[in-house]
Every structure is written in structure tokens, then in C-alpha cells.
């Protein structure tokens, strides 16, 4: 494909994306948030073998429209309230387009000087933007890096913690003693996965009790568990505290947890995958109280900060520890810049060797919106969630299940059992106007409404509420 | 940013990419392959804090041109011969643009039915295209998935192998015995990293001797090492064989290694990260002899198959084993489709939970080029490498260091010591017309020329050769 072919097709595909985004926001909705598609339906429409000879882009676009789009869950839809959001934006897609075009593989500073340094500066910008501790800024011993996801951040935090807990012996000896890892019963599944991947086995994971009201980790329970494990001969290596748990956005009490970790000399990783974005608003920074205790911290601009997946921002207070845990230097990667020690080689901050130039999309987003624009976006989501919570609160057929410090509202039918709440969710989603998911809170089936799209409006919320009230009659 | 803003800016940025690609191919070159940039130069030109208010895209584009592009190592340059290639193409960038615009997060089938099924079909297409064993096709117990890189593929293969070697005990108990992992002394550094991440420690890694001529693993040495380890009470868990080692593209003898792994009941992972693409050409499939023994196999379409980073294609012969090793199912991810068991949830095939819709770029590439187009691309690279090797062979000041079955040529000054070869490489790269990297072969400094760009021509090779001969006079 020549540059001139690409120019012509590129314009066409940019138009495709612009038209798609316009369709998503149309009222009434013409695209169902979740498509009525059966397993095997997409595969069944595709040839079983690749073409022998090249086909025109037009043929691919026709299949895109007829096979792919109708079988797509529309994460960018204003009625998408499931899981946590994963919103992109115009500037993010533009930045990613440049990244694709440059095709930089920035495993080393020398293979992508601009990719490396822009990433460092963007992560420093985010420290400023979120009011994070100065120890994460690259001007000192700390620093930040883009991971693909909070899962991978949890994994590398686990590895760095093992390296520290073993005084470096782990690199050579592996898991040579009984290490333990702590998170709350509400901690994310990626922590269990990280513990398994790191070879500790699930038996090493301690799910610390939460307060049944706030669903936040109980510091006394953490302290007791640490003491019991030490008494039993285990080596506590890592505590993962959460700001904004996946189920209900509970906030673990970092000031107390942090003190315990300092006393016990255990690595503290803070997972703020979803809720970290809220810290761009000064009035929401109370949610980050105690974060200065963290040895590592991450949040996902790809969830609630208008940056397309994948973009997890991860910081450590001591980058030397992380690099020592992860570095491997074969001859074919040696180069003059690395040997000076004056540069960052981000391959040593992550699991994979290769890496894309993901800082570009973040740069486009942060400059296009500016701090005030991003604050307006977060406040918009928080306000819509509050609007919805007020509607729930005012109707005695429903109840709020937990607080809603961010833009997630957990609710259910007040008198309803699990089955009636599950039916309500199924019926609500069936029409395709909105998509919500569920969780269990203290064992009970609970609906989750996570606002995130910049295209969601008061009218989207009000229409959803009308549907909910109507369906509640049937439940 | 409205869809209409995006449309206008998008056209501008597509033009930027088209113009950039045109400039890369200009003769004489106007962009040096590796820029003359000092550490800190990019960061020093950027503000230390994010803007308070949004800025126009024009301002970002001006900085892109003045700060970023001049500090970029141009991986898509026709004179880029370093490492292994990481070539993208027009159709790949187009597919990725659609992926960015859709913003699908395909962690579950239900969150991206089209993303999931297109990925399965694309991986099946590649089985056909490369002539891989039918056991990797999804119609049986096997199947394929896109990983970010061969590093991550090596890691998940290690985890599945541990799961098997422990009869499933590893998930709960972790590394509860002395496992050993085998690759050759020429195996990729990611295997050492995977062993470390999995908690085995580097002491678990056995670097099996190679034949000093072919640099391929010696099956007898593997057999001896396995026997010695078993005798010492270790549990061999994984052998990683390589088709096309990073240093010199050596090919481990899979027929013999595979037989040993079958006898010893050890998981065999085959890493063909670079060289796998060659198998699209029937005349190069001899390099894959014995691959039917593999429990898992990977190659990187993002290296030599015109698909932008990241796109590693990874298969297992038994997907149930992989999923059993990696799955974690919290309540908030439960859904009707998953509970039927009729769908693939790719989150259980990888380390992270979230995932982009990467199958789209592969689909665009495979359809635009077709099998014949991709074969022509591979043959073009192989022929140019052969042309260069012939020039080296015909000049008694130089020598070929190894065979060149693919498109990598390893060479050096015949009489030169390490220092003179290193000087030669530094001088050759300094002009910015080409960029090569080095390795050590049997301890001796060796230059590597890896052809990969579709824009590299006979004239690029001949000009490089003229420079080399001129510089050899000075060495």
C-alpha cells in the first residue's frame, strides 16, 4: 500500500470512525449497547481460510459493517454503564494513529528516545495532575511507566516486593520460602492472578476482612493476619490496598494500612485502577489520603480519563528496585546509551520486552483537554451518578447498597430477592438502550451503574430511570 | 472533541502519516534512521507541568514535528536493519484505527463477541497460512490467541507447563518443588525473564549447549541435562526450542527435541518470534520440521508480517490446560455466555484482564495482501539478505559468520578484532543512512543485518555495501 493509497483509505476510515461515533450518540439509539448475537455467529460468517490473493479495502469495510459492527459490544455508547468504563476520545485516537504510523518499538531509550522521554514526562505530569506524592516523580529515585493494565501493574509490584522481601535472593533462588500477600476480600481478581503467576500459589493470598458497612479493609484484621503469619514462619511480602474497589468503589483506609506496612516493612501497592482519575479534582483528593505511604501506585487513564485502552499509569517510589527485579541484559541489547546509565530503558519496568509508543495518546489527551477539561469530565460523571442515586433514594421500591464517592452507583430492589434483581437487570439490558452489570454485596445480588462516557447526559440517566421504574412493576 | 472535529483533524493526521512514510522512503534520505539525540533532550523541551486549559491540536502537531519526530528512531525506515524488524503497513494502521475508534475491551466474549471470534478465526487462518499442525486449530482441543509479545507468550507457556508438571497443584501450592526449564545458550532473554517472573529463580534455568557451527541446541546435551536433573530430584517442566534465534537465526532440531520432550513428558514451547513469518512460504517450511511436537508455539506478525506492534500469535495444543492455569472468575465478571461454556473468554489466555481488538489489524493485513502478497514480501527480504550475503562472500576482507536461512545476515571483518568491528559498526551507523546492531557469536563481536522493511530495495543494500567497503579501509 503506497502512502497515497493510505492517504485515501485513511480519510475514508477516519470518516467511518466519525460516523460511528455520531451513530452511537443518536437519539433514539440505533445501535444496541450489547448486540443480540449468538456464539459462533461471527465466525460462521467468515471464510475458513485466508484469501490467496489480496482484496480491496472496500471488501473489508463491507464486512466490517455487516459482520463486525453488529456483533460488537459498544463500550463507547452513552448507555454503557457496565463494569468500569473504558472510554476513548478523539485526541486519544489521533495520538494512537501517529503512534501506529511511526511504528516505534521503544524497548530501549536508544530505540525510541522520544517515546521514552515523552512517557517519563507524561507520568510526571500525571503526578502533578493527580496531586500524587512527589516521591513518584522522576526527578528523585522514583518514576512512572505505562503498563498495559492494572493487572500487569499488580504483577510487577508483586515481583519487586518479592525482590525486596528476599534481599534480592529471589532473582536466583525463586520462591524459596513461604511468602504471603494481602488484600481485602474486595480486592481485584488480578491480585489473585499475580500471586499465582509469581509462583506463590493461592495459598499465599490473605483476603483480609472488610468492614461490612464500608466494605473497606479493616486495619486491625490486617495487623492480626500479619502477626499470625509471621508467627507461623511466613514472610509477608506485599499488601495491596484499593482506592475504589471493582465491586463497589470502597476505599481502603490508607493512613492506617500505610503505617502498618511501614512498621512491618512490607511493600504497599495501591490499586486505584478506576478511581485514580478522580484525583484530578481537588475536591476528590480526600479519597487518596495516605497514598504517600505507597511503594507503588497505579491507575488507568484508559478507564475514566478519556485515553483509549491500553494505558495504565504505574509508579514506584524506588525505580532501582523495580529495575533490579526485572532486568535481563543480553549482548544483542547492549548499546552506548544504556551503558552510560543516564537513560531509562522501559523494558526493565515491565513483563514484555517490546513496547508501543503509548505516551503519544496520553499527550494528545492531556493537551487537548487540559487539567480543567479533565476535571469537567470527571465532575460530569460524578454529578450524573449523584443524580441517579438521588432518584433511587427517593423511590422506596429501590435502595442504595453502598456509598457512591465516584461515579458508580450500587443499588437493588428494596424488597427483592436475588432472582428478582437478576431478572430486572436482564430485562433492563434486553432493550439495548443501556447496559449495566452486577456484583454481590455481602452476598446479595446488586446492580451496578458505572457512568463514564462523556456522551452520557441527564436525559440518558432519566430515560434509564423511567425504564427501571417500569420494569420494577414486573419484577 | 466532536465527531466533526475528529473528522477534520483525523484527515490532517492521516496526511501526516502518509507524508512521514513518503519522507522515510526519499532518496537521498532526509531522516536519519537513528537520530543524533542526547539523553534529556526531549524532556528538556517539554513543559514540566500539564496545561491548565486545553490547547489546539495544531500546537501538539507543531511539537510533534519539532520535538518528537527529530528524536525518533525510525523503525519503518528502509535503512533500518537493527535487532529484528518491527514493520507495520498501511492496512495494519487502518485496522488499528478502527480498533481505536470502536474502543472495544474484549476481556470476555460477551464484552466483545466480534473481537473474540475474529481473533479465533484469524489465528485459525494463520495455522493454514503457515502450515502449522492442525492440533493448533480451534476446531479441536487447541487454539490460538494474540499476546502482546513473544515474552508474554513464553511466560504463559511457562505457567501452563508448571500447571501440568504439578498435576494442577501449582495453582494453590505455588512453586513447591524444584522445577527446571531448558533452552539453549542462544535462547531469548525473555525465557530467563519468564523463569524469574514465575518464581523459579534463575537457578532453575538450564542453558543447554549448542553445536558451535550451527548454534542449534544439541539434543544429546538436552537429554543428558534432563537425566542429571531428574537424578538430582528436580522436576523438568518446560523446554523452549527456538526457530530463528535472536542472535543469528539458528534453528534448534525440533524432530529430536520433540521426541525427547514426548518421552520425558515435558512441555515443549517453540519460540519462532521472528522466523515464524517465513513459514508462509512453502519453500521455507523446512525450518519448521518437527513443530508438530510442540505443546505451544508462537511467532510475531509484528516482526516480519507487516502487522504493527503489538501482535504475537500464540497457540496451544490443549486450550483447557492454559485456561485452567490462568482463570480467575470473580462475581462481577460472571455472565450468561461464559456460564454456557460455549464461548472463549480470552482474558483466561493471558496475563492482563483487559484487551484491545488487535485481530482487526491482522484481518486488514491478511486480506489486503493475501497469502501470495505476504509470500512476496518474505521472499523480497530473503532475496535482499542473500544479495548482501553474496557481496560479503565475494570480498575477502569480510566473512559470513553463520548461515542465513531467513533475512538476517551475520558478518564481520575477516581479520578484524572485536574493536575494529565495533568501530566499523559505529561509523556505519553514524551517517544515519542505515542502522545495524551487533551480537557476539562464539564470543566474537559480529554485525547483524536484518532485512524486513518492504521499502528496502536492492539499491539500499548496494549503497550500504559501498559504505561498508569504504569504511573497511579505515577500520
Automatic annotation (TrEMBL), chains A, B:
It comes from the Bacteria. This is Aminotransferase class V-fold PLP-dependent enzyme. GO terms for biological process: amino acid metabolic process; carboxylic acid metabolic process. The keyword Nucleotide-binding does not apply. It comes from Natronosporangium hydrolyticum. One of its GO terms (molecular function) is transaminase activity. Residues 32-51 are annotated as: Disordered. SUPFAM superfamilies: PLP-dependent transferases. Keywords: Aminotransferase, Decarboxylase, Lyase, Pyridoxal phosphate, Transferase. Belongs to the group II decarboxylase family. It holds the Pfam family Pyridoxal_deC. Its cofactor is pyridoxal 5'-phosphate. InterPro entries: Aromatic_deC, PyrdxlP-dep_de-COase, PyrdxlP-dep_Trfase, PyrdxlP-dep_Trfase_major, PyrdxlP-dep_Trfase_small. GO terms for cellular component: cytoplasm. The modification N6-(pyridoxal phosphate)lysine is found at residue 303. Coiled coil: none annotated.
Amino acid at each position: 500500500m503506497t502512502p497515497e493509497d493510505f492517504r485515501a483509505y485513511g480519510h475514508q476510515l477516519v470518516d467511518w470512525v466519525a460516523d460511528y461515533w455520531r451513530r452511537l450518540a443518536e437519539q433514539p439509539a440505533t445501535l444496541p449497547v450489547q448486540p443480540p448475537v449468538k456464539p459462533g455467529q461471527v465466525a460462521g460468517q467468515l471464510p475458513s481460510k485466508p484469501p490467496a490473493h489480496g482484496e480491496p479495502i472496500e471488501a473489508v469495510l463491507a464486512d466490517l459493517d455487516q459482520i463486525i459492527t453488529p456483533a460488537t459490544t459498544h463500550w463507547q455508547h452513552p448507555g454503557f454503564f457496565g463494569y468500569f468504563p473504558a472510554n476513548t476520545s478523539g485526541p486519544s485516537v489521533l495520538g494512537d494513529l501517529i503512534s501506529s504510523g511511526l511504528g516505534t518499538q521503544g524497548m530501549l531509550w536508544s530505540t525510541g528516545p522520544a517515546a521514552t522521554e515523552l512517557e517519563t514526562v507524561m507520568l510526571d505530569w500525571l503526578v502533578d495532575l493527580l496531586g500524587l506524592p512527589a516521591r513518584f516523580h522522576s526527578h528523585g529515585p522514583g518514576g512512572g511507566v505505562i503498563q498495559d493494565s492494572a493487572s500487569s501493574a499488580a504483577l510487577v509490584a508483586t515481583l519487586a516486593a518479592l525482590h525486596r522481601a528476599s534481599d534480592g535472593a529471589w532473582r536466583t533462588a525463586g520462591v524459596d520460602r513461604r511468602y504471603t500477600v494481602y488484600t481485602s476480600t474486595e480486592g481485584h481478581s488480578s491480585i489473585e492472578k499475580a500471586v499465582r503467576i509469581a509462583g506463590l500459589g493461592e495459598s499465599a493470598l490473605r483476603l483480609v476482612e472488610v468492614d461490612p458497612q464500608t466494605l473497606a479493609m479493616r486495619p486491625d484484621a490486617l495487623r492480626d493476619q500479619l502477626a499470625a503469619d509471621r508467627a507461623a514462619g511466613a514472610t509477608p511480602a506485599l499488601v495491596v490496598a484499593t482506592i475504589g474497589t471493582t465491586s463497589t468503589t470502597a476505599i481502603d483506609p490508607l493512613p492506617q494500612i500505610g503505617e502498618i506496612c511501614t512498621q512491618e516493612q512490607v511493600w504497599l501497592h495501591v490499586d486505584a485502577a478506576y478511581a485514580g482519575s478522580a484525583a484530578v479534582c481537588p475536591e476528590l483528593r480526600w479519597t487518596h489520603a495516605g497514598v504517600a505511604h505507597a511503594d507503588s501506585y497505579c491507575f488507568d487513564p484508559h478507564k475514566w480519563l478519556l485515553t483509549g485502552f491500553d494505558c495504565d499509569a504505574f509508579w514506584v517510589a524506588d525505580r532501582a528496585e523495580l529495575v533490579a527485579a526485572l532486568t535481563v541484559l543480553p549482548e544483542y541489547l547492549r548499546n552506548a546509551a544504556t551503558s552510560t546509565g543516564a537513560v531509562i530503558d522501559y523494558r526493565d519496568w515491565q513483563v514484555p520486552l517490546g513496547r508501543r509508543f503509548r505516551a503519544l495518546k496520553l499527550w494528545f489527551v492531556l493537551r487537548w483537554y487540559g487539567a480543567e477539561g479533565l476535571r469537567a469530565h470527571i465532575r460530569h460523571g460524578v454529578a450524573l451518578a449523584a443524580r441517579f442515586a438521588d432518584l433511587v433514594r427517593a423511590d422506596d421500591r429501590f435502595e442504595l447498597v453502598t456509598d457512591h464517592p465516584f461515579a458508580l452507583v450500587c443499588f437493588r430492589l428494596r424488597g427483592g430477592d436475588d432472582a428478582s434483581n437478576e431478572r430486572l437487570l436482564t430485562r433492563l439490558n434486553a432493550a439495548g438502550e443501556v447496559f449495566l452489570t452486577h456484583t454481590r454485596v455481602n452476598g446479595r445480588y446488586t446492580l451496578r451503574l458505572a457512568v463514564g462516557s462523556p456522551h452520557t447526559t441527564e436525559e440518558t440517566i432519566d430515560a434509564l430511570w423511567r425504564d427501571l421504574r417500569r420494569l420494577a412493576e414486573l419484577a
